[in-house]
Amino acid sequence: MRASRAQRRAGVMGAAVWLLLAAWPCTAAGAIGRATAAGGRCIKVAVEFKLPGQPASDAALAGAKQVAAAYGICPPSFGAPPASAEATGQVAAIKADVRAGDKVVLVSADDPVLPGPALQAAMKTGVKVITFGADVPGARDFFVQDTAYDELAQAVVDAAVEEKGPRAKLGVMDMTSDALPEVAWQSAMVSYAEASHITVETLEWTPFASPLTMAEDMVRAYPGVDAILAIDDPAVAGAARAVTDLDKVGKIAVFGIGDPLPVRRYFANGSLRALFGWDETGEGELLMCVAKLAYTDEIHPGSTFSCQHGPLGSRAVADKASPATGATKGTVIFSAPLEFTPQNYRRYDF
Q1: For the chain, what is the radius of gyration of the CA atoms?
Q2: Using an 8 Å Cβ cutoff, are 173 and 235 in contact?
Q3: Maximum CA extent, the chain
């Protein structure tokens, strides 16, 4: 799960090395490749991640590589800005992609505003812009959203209530104060719990506070809490470690939103009971499908489509905003929430 900007500045060390691959004609034929590559050439696509070297990004990258040729797409170029540059680095990368002749640019935005002018300029030249994971409203053709906000939030609450009972006291812990979709997930969790008459408390993020400190503060502030619902990887790890260090395993259960690889130790020791997210590899495959359909103008707000490779099944392109799901015009929701449990977490390497 992608961390907030504040967390990344504190936790990400080193600089990223961009992997820029030159585009060349596709050799994997296939009907799709021949039909979409004008003049026998494949579609040049660039993918810009928020952070380099993250397991989730690597999984999405692997998925994209796996199906790109089948969609008539050249081996995509993949990049991520240096940790010291972040959003400004993405702006520079977007401009470089346009200069390099990429026809589709996919961006997981580090900032919802800063890349906007560069993306709008790219669109004016005919480049198709697709955001994923984190949107840049008004500066893209399509947005691939990981999962619906309300479904993800409800899944976490339901898992906690299933284990702790309908009278459970829940604490919601988020390490961000303004980052979407984390804020939307927290709001949806609280609203759903309150509508179900479940006691829920929230702990506001304190700047520069560590996830461990926040989790310990929650346990001390709400001594009757039965479960902590943690939003994003750092919060999940902090909550599970606090429960472990305070000898509360079996008394306080941790549920959350995140990726399983960073918190495997807490699944193993029983402090983490369930985690919800999505299949990063499958999302990478979907990105290539949407890139091809966007390039050939086969999708638009209000349309539906199916992918012939990777994630199968029909998907809709939203033609209006939905506060419940978080979708806005041009949004494609990747999947329903995927649950990681003590029984299945070892299957996933992100």
Answers
A1: 21
A2: yes
A3: 68
Judge whether 128 and 141 are in contact, CB under 8 Å: yes
Which pLDDT tens digit goes with each residue over 284-329? 999 999 999 999 999 999 999 999 998 888 999 999 999 999 999 9
Q: Evaluate whether 324 touches 150 at the Cβ level (below 8 Å).
A: yes
User: Which fold, 149-277?
Assistant: Rossmann fold (3.40.50)
pTM (2 decimals)?
A: 0.85
Question: What's the CATH number for 5-146+280-335?
Answer: 3.40.50.2300
Q: Are 44 and 74 in contact (CB under 8 A)?
A: yes
Q: Which residues pair with 79 in a beta bridge?
A: 48
Q: Which helix (H) or strand (E) holds 292?
A: helix 280-295
CA distance 341 to 170: 19
Is the CB of residue 273 less than 8 Å from the CB of residue 337?
Answer: no
* Domain ranges across the chain: 5-146+280-335, 149-277
How much helix, strand and coil, in percent to the nearest 5, is found in the chain? 40, 20, 45
Measured CA to CA, the distance from residue 277 to residue 340 in angstroms comes to 8
Q: In this predicted model, what pLDDT tens digit does every residue of 37-55 receive, in sequence order?
A: 444 699 999 999 987 778 9
CA–CA distances in Å: residue 182 to residues 2, 232, 291, 303, 319 = 10, 8, 26, 28, 23
